Amino acid sequence: MPMEAQVSIRVQPSCTCSLAISSPQPRFGLPAKPLFRHSPLRSTANKPTASPEQLTATPIMEASGFDSKGREFKNAEEMWTEEIGKDGDVHKRKEWYRQGVGYWEGVEATTDGVLGGYAHVNDADIKGSEAFLRLLLVERFPGGGRGRNLVALDCGSGIGRVSKNLLIRFFTEVDLLEPVSHFLEAARESLVPESGSAIENKATNFFCVPLQEFTPDVGRYDVIWIQWCIGHLADDDFVSFFMRAKAGLKPGGLFVLKENIARSGFVLDKEDRSVTRSDTYFKELFHRCGLHIFKSKDQRGLPEELFAVKMYALTPDTPKRVHGTRAKAQHNRPSIIK
Ligand SMILES: C[S@@+](CC[C@H](N)C(=O)[O-])C[C@H]1O[C@@H](n2cnc3c(N)ncnc32)[C@H](O)[C@@H]1O
Question: How far apart are CA 202 and CA 217, in angstroms?
């Protein structure tokens, strides 16, 4: 049982609340942050006073956020300036990424390791992802993609949990990208085809690089899957990654981003150097990337104490205009009897 420690977190200018958080902090990646079990982001007692309309209307750079020590930032810009410095401060930015990867280098290459002690959410996570992926394949590719040479990229793949349990069953080829070499080695071993296996699909490439330094081959992928790792990227690297990666999609291809969602603003984890963003924050970034939401879905069935998790299917294609009004007008026109 983790020890409980009392910390004071200022949630509103006029209210100082004493909140319990777990300490010492079991270290997690993105899915598992019991650290925030009692955080203002989950506690209904400490809901922000702004209405949902006000929260959506607030430009993201103006939304306030917290770090894992309870410190409040007045907006994301203030937080990023502190964490990665102003433009040109190469050293600070390098340090941010070094510490992020450094954190994961100290984690064991197991499902429990990459899920921060929450290996038991694996089944619910994979089921939710599978339902979402099936829907996308049916809607996006003729015949649900059957008979096509489908190729996926698993970004921040860790030990290849998503590739092994999901992607390899649907894609002829899966490439994995992961900056932590002992994770990638574990992935390589677990994805070696079993002799006699009916599945002919294969893991093809294993890239040991971080997302901010990766450029995919042009037109290689039907789906680029990014799960529980994008929080490690600063906003500008987030945008440049997606801008470069768009060229890696085949025509009609999609990004799937599956991530923890903060209730509002953001939450900075000081230990693993990651940021959990709100839905509004993500939408602002998608806009900057020139990406459109083709479909999105909430992940269900995860433990109450964790952040909400959302799946976004993103496309660089401009959505087709739905001529709803005209269709409606025609529908309401009296029929003509011929
Ligand atoms: C919570 S684990 C998730 C692993 C995997 N996506 C899964 O769902 O099982 C976070 C992963 O992000 C990786 N990561 C950290 N910094 C990264 C970066 N800059 N680019 C890509 N991946 C990164 C970590 O090494 C780790 O494998």
Answer: 18
